[in-house]
């Protein structure tokens, strides 16, 4: 591995520590190298806190070495005042002579400006090291700014014979939760929720399963809960509308509970109540990533419009024989994992 690739790979590795906390900011990683030795590292703090470059520079004990060092960073350093000062100012202040960047920042306030400011100051800038890997790492941030929508993860569990749920007559005669995936798989889902900004379900899932959609089986923040409830059929006392976690209800109705604590209602016209319209609302709310955990109708909204980026599919050992069929997914780009008795298939939408 070449020297630049070696240290950029380390940047990506440490940047993963910001998963779930940095959003909607990018989860950037930065490494400072002096004479082929790492003297400083950092990743982006929780939203509103210091960026990766600042943390890396602050971690260097002997600041005099910075004038002889190379800074590696997964994303072009910011050049504007937001919740924190520009990272380019700090890099220039310390006289770091070389900056190696994974990929450009598409944010309208950066978009090449950071690169130009560093070059203008006399800094040598190397762009595009492990660019494909850095873009994959920053997929949520890049999707939000380049495609003007959140990064969409579809998630469901299906039986060994390909059903999302048993036939309705069985559910009526024997009303109970019909778990498909194992405890280990369900805990993994809670971990995923802690890593994304929002989790979305539809009316039927809310009514039949009465889910909390929290991270109660994993240490981490709860995501924003998004409920698609066209006719406001979900009762106010259901779990998804209660608790300390905010719920955003997207509806076609005028809300009778405008002042209900912890919830927000947004009315969407009937002709805009589709995947594109829903994602546009979430984008305007600053949501950079969403896990769709809905039933077949909600999943089909996103599949039919091809507005999804990943599908994470658990297949458990249980069989139903009949019931609600799971979506049929054909893909070339997939990963298979074993989670206890379950199989987890992850498909990327190319």
UniProtKB/TrEMBL annotation:
SUPFAM superfamilies: Cytidine deaminase-like, Dihydrofolate reductase-like
Catalytic activity: 2,5-diamino-6-hydroxy-4-(5-phosphoribosylamino)-pyrimidine + H2O + H(+) = 5-amino-6-(5-phospho-D-ribosylamino)uracil + NH4(+); 5-amino-6-(5-phospho-D-ribitylamino)uracil + NADP(+) = 5-amino-6-(5-phospho-D-ribosylamino)uracil + NADPH + H(+)
Chain ranges of the CMP/dCMP-type deaminase domain: 2-118
Binding annotation for Zn(2+): 51, 78, 87
Binding residues for NADP(+): 157, 179, 205, 209
Annotated binding of substrate, by residue: 193, 213, 216, 293
Name used for this protein in its record: Riboflavin biosynthesis protein RibD
Organism of this sequence: Lentiprolixibacter aurantiacus
Gene, per the UniProt record: ribD
